[in-house]
Amino acid sequence: MASQNMDPAAAAASSTAALKGSESGGSAARSSVSKRLQQELMTLMMSGDKGISAFPESDNLFKWIGTIDGANGTVYEGLRYRLSLEFPAGYPYQAPRVKFVTSCFHPNVDGQGFICLDILKDKWSALYDVRSILLSIQSLLGGCCVHCHVFTTSWSMTL
User: What positions does the domain UBC core occupy (predicted)?
Assistant: First the structure.
């Protein structure tokens, strides 16, 4: 395949240009994203990571339901949280929209379940995948990001 020998920056620019040039994500772009998501699903299923999982919601590969178990030794130990993950047509060059479906009382989670996590915002990279997102959120539950307290009531109660 020619794309295997392509410069990563050129490949990213080419993919981004293709996405911009297609209407509503276009079938080629959606096919590319679908392939990526299928690979990520297989990687996640084969990873053997404890306490995280995610699967497409019904037949829609662009909407997933994930679960995260609270890490041992934290106040979240023994709890299981459900998350929704929605992937844009520009994925992996655009971050997915991730939020808690299960209520989560944490300084970096707002009242609607949205998560303040740098890799879901300005630090997003196409190198991240569903597995790294879930592991990062699980890790966040063990502490907090001091630069982003979206739920100030819970933050002030932890001081």
Answer: 32-159
104 labelled catalytic: no
Matching residue, tokens 């106040």: 75
**Beta carbons of 61 and 68 less than 8 angstroms apart:** no
Task: For residue 51, give the 3-state DSSP assignment.
Answer: coil
Average pLDDT of every residue of the chain: 82
Give φ, ψ of 54 to 5 degrees. -160, 145
Tokens of 17: 């240009």
Copy the structure tokens of residue 121.
């915002």
**Dist. CA 121–CA 98, nearest whole Å:** 11
Distances 76 to 135, 140, 141 between C-alpha atoms, Å: 14, 11, 7
Tokens 């699967």 correspond to what residue? 55
* Cα–Cα distance measured from residue 72 to residue 154, given in angstroms and rounded to the nearest whole number: 21
Among the listed residues 116, 144, 145, 148, the single catalytic one is: 116
Closest C-alpha to 85, from 109, 59, 55, 112: 55
Which residue shows structure tokens 């971050």?
95
